[in-house]
Amino acid sequence: MASPATTPVAGPATGPRSPKGKETRRRRLTAAAFLLPSLVLLGALVVHPIGYSLYRSFFDRSGEEFVGAGNYGEILRDDTIRTALGNTAIWVVLAPVTATALGLLFAVLTERVRWGTAFKLIVFMPMAISMLAAGIIFRLVYDADPDRGVANAVWVGVHDTFAESSAFPKARPGRDSPLLPADGGAYVTRDPVRAGVPALLPLVGIAPEALPEGTATAKAAAPGPGKVTGTAWQDFTRGGGGTTNTVDPTESALSGLRVEAVKDGRVVDSARTRADGTFTLSAAADGALLRLPASNFREAYGGVEWLGPTLVTPAVIGAYVWMWAGFAMVLIGAGLAAVPRELLEAARVDGASEWQVLRRITVPLLAPVLAVVLVTLVINVMKVFDLVFVIAPGAVQDDANVLALQLYRTSFGTDADPGLGSAIAVLLLVLVAPVMAYNIRRMRREARR
Hints:
Elements lengths: L18 H38 L13 H8 L1 H31 L6 H9 L6 H11 L8 H13 L16 E3 L5 E3 L9 E5 L24 E7 L23 E6 L2 E7 L5 E4 L7 E4 L19 H26 L3 H9 L4 H12 L1 H16 L3 H6 L11 H10 L5 H31 L1
Parallel strand pairs: 3-4
Antiparallel strand pairs: 1-2, 2-8, 4-7, 5-6, 5-8
Helix pairs in contact: 1-13, 2-13, 3-7, 3-10, 4-7, 7-10, 8-9, 10-13, 12-13
C-alpha cells in the first residue's frame, strides 16, 4: 500500500520579498546612507591624497616625464635628505622614551604627596600651548645672549660660580712696557723686582666704557721697607697726553688683579691689587719676577651654543619633551590608579625597596599603558615639523632637518620639486605604517580580553 505523500512544513519567510528580508535590506540601506558621507570624506581627504602622492612620486618635477623609482633613488643620494632621515631616527629613539620616562617618574612621585595634583597641572599646562607658540618660547630660551636666553643665563651663572671670568679680558701690555707675554696668556716683568722699589704693571687695550662700574683712579705705590710694592693700572689718558709707563693723575686703576712673585718657576708670594691698583708683597718676593696669571684676562664665558650645529637637535627635542611629558604623565597616572594596592603593599612587607617595587611590579603592570604612550609619541614625532621649523635658525636648519620639514621644503620651497616631495611623503607613510599596524593589533588584542 502506498504511503501518503509527506507534506513539507513551511518555515519562516526569509526570501527577498519576505517581511524579514525587507527589514534587513532597509537596515543596510540606512547604514549605508549614514556611512556614505564619512566614506566620501575619507576617500577625498585620505585615500585620494595617498594614491595621488604615490602616483606623483613616479614623475619628474614638471609631472610630465615618468622617472620610475628615480625620486626614491634621489632620497638616498641627497645629503640633506639623509640628514633628515638620521635626525628622524634620533627623534624616534630619544623623544618618546624621554617623555615616557619623565611621565612615569612624575606619575609615581606625585601619587603620594598632597600637592601632587597641583604639580600635575603645572606639568600638563604646556599641552595647552601650540607647537608654534612653544617654538617661539624656546627660541628665546635658547638665545645665545645670557641676558635674554634663560638656558644660557643659568649655565653661565653656574659656570661663573666655579670659574669666574675676569673684568679685564682684553688687557695687554703696551709698547715699551716692562711686561712681556708668557706661556698660557700670562704676562711677566722683564726684570726681577726689588724690595723698596715700586713695580710698575701698566696695561692697555681696555675700552673706558668696559671698565667695571666704580673704578677708581690709579695711585702710585709708595715704597715699603722690606716689601715689594707696585701698581697695576690702565696706561691710557682720555683725550691724549700722559706719559707712557707712568701713573698719571687721571688714569684708571685695575683692581682685583692677581699678582704672583715667581722664583725658579715657583710662586713664592701673591697678592691682589686694591681699588687704587696698588699691591704689596712680602720680602720673599725680593728678586723675583712678577707674573700676572692668565686667569686675570680670561674671556667672559658666553655659555653654550644651544642652537649651533651640534646641539640644535637635542635642544629641539628638549622643547618637545617639555610639551609632551605632561601627556605621558596623565595617561600613566590613570593606569597607575588601577594598579592593585595590595600587590605593592605585599612587596613592601616582604622587604622590597621602592626601586624594586617600581621595576618588578609597577612597570610590568603598567606595560600596556606604557606601550600606548610610546606608540602614540612615536607616531607623533615622525611628523614633527613646527618646532624644528621655528626653533632652528636658518643657518643650521639643515643640521636640525627632519623628514616632515624636508617634505615641506622640497614640495613648497624656492626650488620646489613635487615629484621628490611626493616620494618623501610616501617614505614617511611607509615608516609610520608598521607602528600603526602594531597599534591596531594591540588594540584588537585588548578588545578581545
